[in-house]
Amino acid sequence: MTQNIWKHITRYGNAVLLTAVLLVTAAFPSTATDDPPLASFMGDWQSNGDAFGRPAVSTIKFAPAFGGKLVHLQYNINIITNGTPTPAFSGVAYYKQLTDDRYQAFWADIEGSIHPIASTLEGQALTSIWGTEETRLGRTRYEILSDGTMRITDWARVDDEWKQFNDNVYKRLHHNIAHETK
Q1: Other C-beta atoms within 10 Å of 125: how many?
Q2: Tell me: the pLDDT tens digits for 108-129?
Q3: Cβ–Cβ < 8 Å for 81, 97
Q4: Mind listing the pLDDT tens digit for each residue in 124-157?
Q5: Residue 80 burial (CB < 10 Å; 0-12/13-18/19+)?
Q6: Positive or negative CA dihedral for 165, 167, 172, 178?
Q7: Confidence at residue 177, expressed as pLDDT on a 0 to 100 scale
Q8: Are 157 and 137 in contact (CB under 8 A)?
């Protein structure tokens, strides 16, 4: 008798469970897409402009990392002296998506700086607040423009004011969201 009861509970219990899962899935559709976080930023970008008041070639790369769980950013500045590029600065960041429009990250660079980052995505613009009040506080805005270029603008917090110290427009060299940085 007990075996008969468990057989009916198991048979009908599985049917009830499947129905509940289907109802919940229909009531709360997934907002996930096949695109990785920050998909429109993915790829290799280059700017031929100025850095530190001198002609420079700056590159930035956004790529999926760790199975798409994070986004890796690699940033390099090469100062051009007599036609020869010389490395002047480089840094890396790893971004983790928290919600549709919020990201948490960290930054590390050749100066030995390590900064926490809190970012917000609004349309085609990612604004990152990096550092701390106790150390150094900055803001970087990455914006995909209507012509497909990306403008990157940096500010540092000095005496309770945002002072701009960088503004360059980057052209996309490659757009490969499937390539993963390890």
Answers
A1: 14
A2: 999 999 999 999 999 999 999 9
A3: no
A4: 999 999 999 888 999 999 999 999 999 999 999 9
A5: middle
A6: positive
A7: 59
A8: yes
Give long-range contacts, CB 8 A cutoff, 24+ apart: 163-166: 166/51
120, two tokens: 């917000």
- Here the tokens at position 19 are 């129905």
Q: Are 21 and 162 in contact (CB under 8 A)?
A: no
Q: What residues contact 49, with CB distance under 8 A and at least 6 apart? A: 55, 56, 58, 168, 169
Helix, strand counts (H, E) of the chain: 1, 10
- Is residue 126 within 8 A of residue 139, CB to CB? The reply is no
Residues with Cβ within 8 Å of residue 142, at least 6 apart in sequence: 41, 125, 126, 127, 128, 150, 151, 152
